[in-house]
């Protein structure tokens, strides 16, 4: 009986070793393609590298198709004028923008002044992951009170980057104000608390605001229709160009991987 028990324990130990070995070699194979990916991160990396359904009953997520309808690529406009824009979004799971099925505040248009006219345009069909901080901003209620460069109910993100100089303490202050709320900092404007957001989510949002919205020659707009103003670029010649990049991050399937669709055009100033 004692010998039988020892044999059973030995077999269980052997099976455990074989399972661990398979997981190790699978993780090693994945991480060898990207040395920055640890073994513990390999399963997440594998999910990111594929668009296959995860599980026997899971459905695959299809990337959204984003198209800038107006303005046309390589068209020209005078500086300090308003240029109408229109964006089309089609997503197999989320719906069609032409039918009002795509949330307007989740479609973003980035307008960037370029130093030269020879900048390559990214392929619209390339699947890309959105910066999670920007995704959090678009899918929360931030833009109800804040704009990227202009003042709404609260200060713009640009004003925030100028008010809070880049430092670790200011970073944690901004995170705390979003998480717990604040008052009296911007006059009588009240910043409501956001208990529905985790600290990690807020940190990513603040990091994106700090790194992106303080840049003079880049602006952001939301919605599938509207108009942009071509400002005289700071530190650039008048005969310059602007890259317009429209993007939309879908909602995923069953809380799975979310995918971004993008499209870009370049317009010139006269």
What is the structure about, briefly put?
With 270 residues, the chain is an alpha+beta fold. The chain has helices at 2-33, 42-49, 132-139, 157-163, 168-180, 199-212; strands at residues 65-70, 76-77, 82-91, 95-96, 107-114, 182-183, 190-191, 218-222, 225-229, 241-249, 260-269. It folds into 2 domains: 2-49; 65-269, Cytochrome Bc1 Complex, Chain D, domain 2 (Orthogonal Bundle).
Task: Describe what you observe in this structure.
The chain is of the alpha+beta class and 270 residues long. It contains 6 helices and 11 strands. The strands form 3 sheets. It has a 5-stranded mixed β-sheet with strand order 2-11-10-5-8, with no helix packed on it. Strands 1, 3, 4 and 9 form a 4-stranded antiparallel β-sheet that branches. Helix 1 packs across helix 2. The protein starts with a helix and ends with a strand. About 17% of the residues have low confidence.
Low-confidence stretches: 19-52, 117-129
Distance between the termini: 93 Å
Characterize the biggest β-sheet. Answer: 5 strands, mixed
Strand order in the largest sheet: 2-11-10-5-8
Global shape: globular
Kindly report the CATH topology of the largest domain: Cytochrome Bc1 Complex, Chain D, domain 2
What is the tally of beta strands? 11
Helix-strand pattern: HHEEEEEHHHEEHEEEE
């Amino acid at each position: 009986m004692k010998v039988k028990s020892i044999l059973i324990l030995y077999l269980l130990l052997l099976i455990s070793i074989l399972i661990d070995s398979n997981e190790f070699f699978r993780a090693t194979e994945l991480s060898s393609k990207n040395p920055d990916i640890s073994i513990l991160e390999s399963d997440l990396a594998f999910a990111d590298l594929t668009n296959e359904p995860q599980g026997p009953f899971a459905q695959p997520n299809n990337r959204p198709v984003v198209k800038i309808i107006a303005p046309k690529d390589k068209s020209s406009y005078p500086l300090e004028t308003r240029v109408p824009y229109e964006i089309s979004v089609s997503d197999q799971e989320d719906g069609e923008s032409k039918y009002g099925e795509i949330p307007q505040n989740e479609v973003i248009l980035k307008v960037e002044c370029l130093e030269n006219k020879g900048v390559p345009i990214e392929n619209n069909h390339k699947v890309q992951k959105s910066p999670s901080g920007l995704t959090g901003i678009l899918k929360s209620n931030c833009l109800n009170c804040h704009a990227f460069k202009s003042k709404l109910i609260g200060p713009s993100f640009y004003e925030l980057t100028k008010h809070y100089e880049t430092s670790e303490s200011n970073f944690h202050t901004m995170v705390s104000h979003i998480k717990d709320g604040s008052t009296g900092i911007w006059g009588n404007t009240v910043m409501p608390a956001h208990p529905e957001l985790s600290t990690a989510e807020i940190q990513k949002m603040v990091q994106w605001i700090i790194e992106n919205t303080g840049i003079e020659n880049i602006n952001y707009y939301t919605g599938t229709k509207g108009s942009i103003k071509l400002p005289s670029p700071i530190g650039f010649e008048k005969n310059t160009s602007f890259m317009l990049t429209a993007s939309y991050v879908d909602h995923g399937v069953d809380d799975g991987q979310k995918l971004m669709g993008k499209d870009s055009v370049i317009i010139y100033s006269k």
